[in-house]
Amino acid sequence: MSESDWVTWLLLSCVVLALAGLPSFRRSRASHGRSLPVPRTDVDLRTAQHVLIVSASIAAGHDGAADELARRCADHGAVVDRSDFLDLLPLGLGGLLRSLYRAQLEAVPGTWGWLLRRLEHPRSLRLVGGIFAGLARRRLLGVIGADTQLIIATYPLASHALGALRQRGLVTASVQTFLTDMSVHPLWVAPGVDTHLALHEVPARQARLRGAQDVHVVGPALSAAFRPALPGERTAARERLTLPADAHLALVVAGSWGVGDILRTVEDVNLTGLATPVVVCGKNQRLYAALVAEGTRAFGWVQDMATLMRACDTVIQNAGGLTCLEARASGLPLITYRALPGHGRTNADALEEAGWASWAHSTDQLAVFLSGHLSTTSPPTDRLLDGLIHRTPAGTA
């Protein structure tokens, strides 16, 4: 397909979603009339006894945050229910949305940035939020228990659907949005949501500027497995993973789908002569096969990312997602390179502003950052780099 064909397909898909959602949305408006004010219920994951977490199986970041939030709630003695927002959409539209997004990032990533820019307009936000609120309304109400006290959304469209129900008095539980990214697109800020939970003051400030209410900085929701290496663990991790014992290893990551110009990134790392690339391909089997064929050490889907990070010296990424937070918690310096359009670039800006990552805009800058990160013989997890402290406690909601 040409780029124009892909854009046409995207627009047609949006029309299909709109046509599918508008009847339900209109019925919702007709049935419930004007929005009703709903009293705030001050409850959080430390005090709630019954919690619902709504994420989305799009890449790994939304589900990853939801997994850790669910663990924390359970540790406090709560009953925790989980729902995938995509499963709550009728007619298989959730699977279509997932496939469309992945195909877009793989084939014409530039159109994703274009689409996000269009969705910054208030009218577009209201339309998209209303459509998905209507689509998910019936099934979403079906998964909310009568005694549910707290609902946490880790996916923006879920926040819109929940916020709409909250505004109409159909949900009395407190609704919170956990902002999984370091940058906040307007789609993340949904009317009716009580509280927004941010990773850092940078996204918290962006959320407030976009009209979010009651914003709190709580830090990343990460497993405790992601921590700086203890003495001897780096060597043991390399032996276990059959990685070179003495080389400087640059872990190249591209999300669970392995999207982006990873082959060129590997080539550029090799050209610097400063590090040996080790690539996580996620579920991208074609990328894995291509890298193995050219002799690059590559992994497919990795269950134990914490051990792999302890084996490496630095991380190079392109999207600003969950792996960035895991790298920082592991004490590894982080470089953004060949950032994806849209959220990849806005996250790169936010990570750099927070001092959590360096953004290399060229191969020369990549070499400069690699040289700086690898200039010491001490293990990287024993270093304190400017703006890259080993770990900030994740806090609680």
Distinct helical segment count: 14
Poorly predicted regions are 1-40, 376-397
N- and C-termini, Cα separation: 45 Å
**Helix/sheet category:** alpha/beta
What is the strand tally? 12
Q: What are the main properties of this structure?
A:
397 residues; alpha/beta; 6-stranded parallel beta sheet; 14 helices; 45% helix; 13% strand; globular; disordered N terminus; disordered C terminus
What would you note in describing this structure?
By secondary structure, the chain is an alpha/beta fold. 45% of the residues lie in helices and 13% in strands. Strands 2-1-3-4-5-6 form a 6-stranded parallel β-sheet, with helices on both faces. It has a 6-stranded parallel β-sheet with strand order 9-8-7-10-11-12, with helices on both faces. α5 (122-143) crosses α6. The relative contact order is 0.12. Residues 1-40 and 376-397 have low confidence and may be disordered.
Secondary structure topology:
Elements: H1 3-32, E1 50-55, H2 61-75, E2 79-84, H3 93-107, H4 110-118, H5 122-143, E3 150-153, H6 156-167, E4 174-178, E5 195-198, H7 201-209, E6 215-217, H8 233-240, E7 249-253, H9 262-272, E8 276-280, H10 285-293, E9 297-299, H11 305-310, E10 314-317, H12 322-329, E11 334-337, H13 343-354, E12 358-360, H14 363-373
Parallel strand pairs: 1-2, 1-3, 3-4, 4-5, 5-6, 7-8, 7-10, 8-9, 10-11, 11-12
Helix pairs in contact: 1-3, 1-5, 5-6
Produce a short descriptive summary.
The chain is of the alpha/beta class.
